[in-house]
């Protein structure tokens, strides 16, 4: 893996702001920054949080070595005093937010970063780049999983995006409900199920389709999946069953009218005695294509381009805004932008979801001073949505690694079931539940 510092995965102005703030004394002011989105992608009913665990992974390495510091010095990005401040820098603040796999809506306080202005401002670009992309992929994956019903979806998008984005996308896809990935680095890093057998070139390099099938079966066993649309699908299926026997694990179709072909292949396999052979389809699928395939005899899906591009919404438009800061008198003071169409809500936030008859009916964002929030008592049917990821620089390691991804995967399914059924509609509409902002 490329050796790099996450502390340089940032915009230059974060370091120039740090430099100026250190000079004027505001760098040490205690602050609260919040990540939220003003709106969901057009017509979407909900979003799925993903990437929080990756932020914790990045913060473990969020420091600058001598080469990085020389770069900042040589480019005259910051002055000598700031270089000295950065020499032993480690983020020492507190991070709270929605858990991975949780649903979010406009104005949901998805992540809260608390610490000094100097340390919090350095995290902006890294936090946004992770949450915006990972949540976009997880949100698209969730819609695809709903459309696929009980049929597993697998990530095959690595060749359709940046090589590092492919790894992030594989992780986010599993948070969003997918079952595995073709990306081996993602499988290694996060303990994900790896899938894959052979491409068309494997058939083409052999003298005949039968030779290719025999080679694959000898190498991978009868439970492998054979790609049957290189030449003639009907002939390929016949050859596959003749070579592997009725115990053939699966066939994959990657072109044509997938619903019609799947029906014909299913009937052919059954007629040949291969009644347990599974059918996988691929070929630029999105949630709408999956919905159209619901009545087809398909057992699983491989999804690429539309997954890693968020199925038309490759970002969640999340922003990272200062909502509270320490004043000259030492007390914490709510702050907010008043910019046209970009006004923010002052003060740190609490977040809850209310329920009626076991179904969510509202998102409640409560904003106010530290004292007023400490005294706030939510209603009995409100569920607290915020969890602690890091406490004064110490990360909650249970929110990192494979087990955290599994829990996020399971939580997404549960949280989606708790939303009104309209949340799973693919038609354009308003957010599944309204968000109410309570100012204390």
Automatic annotation (TrEMBL):
Q: Which GO MF terms does the UniProt record name?
A: glycosyltransferase activity; nicotinate phosphoribosyltransferase activity
Q: Which NCBIfam families match?
A: NAPRTase_put, PRK09243.1-5, PRK12484.1
**Family as reported in the entry's similarity comment:** Belongs to the NAPRTase family.
Could you tell me the Gene Ontology terms of the biological process aspect for this record?
A: NAD+ biosynthetic process via the salvage pathway
Enzyme class (EC, first level): ligase
What range(s) does the Nicotinate phosphoribosyltransferase N-terminal domain occupy? Answer: 8-132
User: Part of which pathway?
Assistant: Cofactor biosynthesis; NAD(+) biosynthesis; nicotinate D-ribonucleotide from nicotinate: step 1/1
Q: What is its EC number?
A: 6.3.4.21
Full protein name: Nicotinate phosphoribosyltransferase
Keywords on record: Glycosyltransferase, Ligase, Phosphoprotein, Pyridine nucleotide biosynthesis, Transferase
> What InterPro entries does the record tag this protein with?
Aldolase_TIM (IPR013785), N/Namide_PRibTrfase (IPR041525), NAPRTase_N (IPR040727), Nic_PRibTrfase-Fam (IPR007229), Nic_PRibTrfase_pncB (IPR006405), Nicotinate_pribotase-like_C (IPR036068)
Which reactions does this protein catalyse? 5-phospho-alpha-D-ribose 1-diphosphate + nicotinate + ATP + H2O = nicotinate beta-D-ribonucleotide + ADP + phosphate + diphosphate
Q: Which CDD domains match?
A: NAPRTase_A
**Nicotinate/nicotinamide phosphoribosyltransferase domain residues:** 153-340
List GO terms (cellular component aspect).
cytosol
């Amino acid at each position: 893996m490329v050796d790099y510092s996450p502390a340089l995965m940032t915009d230059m102005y974060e370091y120039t702001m740090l430099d100026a703030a250190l000079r004027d004394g505001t760098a040490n002011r205690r602050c609260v920054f919040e990540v939220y989105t003003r709106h969901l992608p057009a017509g979407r009913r909900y979003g799925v949080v993903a990437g929080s665990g990756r932020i914790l992974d990045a913060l473990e390495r969020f420091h600058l070595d001598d080469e990085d510091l020389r770069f900042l010095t040589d480019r005259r990005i910051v002055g000598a005093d700031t270089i000295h401040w950065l020499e032993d820098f480690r983020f020492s603040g507190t991070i709270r937010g929605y858990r991975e796999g949780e649903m979010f809506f406009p104005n949901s306080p998805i992540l809260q970063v608390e610490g000094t202005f100097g340390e919090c401002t350095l995290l902006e670009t890294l936090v946004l780049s992770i949450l915006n992309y990972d949540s976009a992929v997880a949100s698209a994956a969730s819609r695809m999983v709903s459309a696929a019903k009980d049929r597993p979806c697998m990530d095959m998008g690595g060749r359709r995006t940046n090589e590092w984005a492919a790894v992030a996308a594989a992780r986010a896809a599993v948070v969003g409900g997918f079952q595995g990935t073709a990306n081996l680095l993602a499988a290694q890093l996060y303990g994900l199920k790896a899938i894959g057998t052979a491409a068309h070139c494997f058939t083409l390099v052999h003298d005949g389709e039968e030779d290719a099938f025999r080679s694959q079966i000898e190498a991978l066993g009868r439970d492998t999946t054979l790609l049957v649309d290189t030449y003639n699908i009907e002939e390929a299926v016949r050859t596959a069953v003749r070579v592997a026997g009725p115990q053939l694990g699966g066939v994959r179709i990657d072109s044509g009218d997938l619903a019609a072909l799947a029906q014909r292949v299913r009937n052919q396999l059954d007629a040949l005695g291969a009644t347990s052979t599974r059918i996988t389809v691929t070929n630029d699928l999105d949630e709408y294509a999956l919905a159209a395939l619901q009545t087809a005899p398909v057992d699983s899906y491989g999804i690429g381009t539309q997954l890693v591009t968020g199925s038309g919404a490759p970002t969640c438009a999340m922003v990272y805004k200062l909502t509270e800061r320490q004043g000259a008198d030492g007390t914490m003071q709510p702050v907010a932008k008043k910019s046209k169409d970009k006004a923010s809500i002052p003060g740190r936030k609490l977040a809850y979801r209310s329920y009626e008859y076991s179904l969510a009916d509202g998102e409640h964002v409560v904003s106010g001073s530290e004292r007023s929030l400490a005294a706030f008592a939510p209603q009995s049917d409100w569920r607290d949505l915020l969890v602690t990821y890091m406490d004064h620089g110490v990360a909650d390691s249970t929110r990192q690694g494979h087990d955290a991804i599994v829990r996020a995967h399971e939580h997404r399914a549960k949280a989606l079931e708790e939303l009104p059924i309209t949340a799973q509609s693919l038609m354009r509409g308003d957010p599944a539940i309204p968000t109410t902002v309570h100012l204390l």
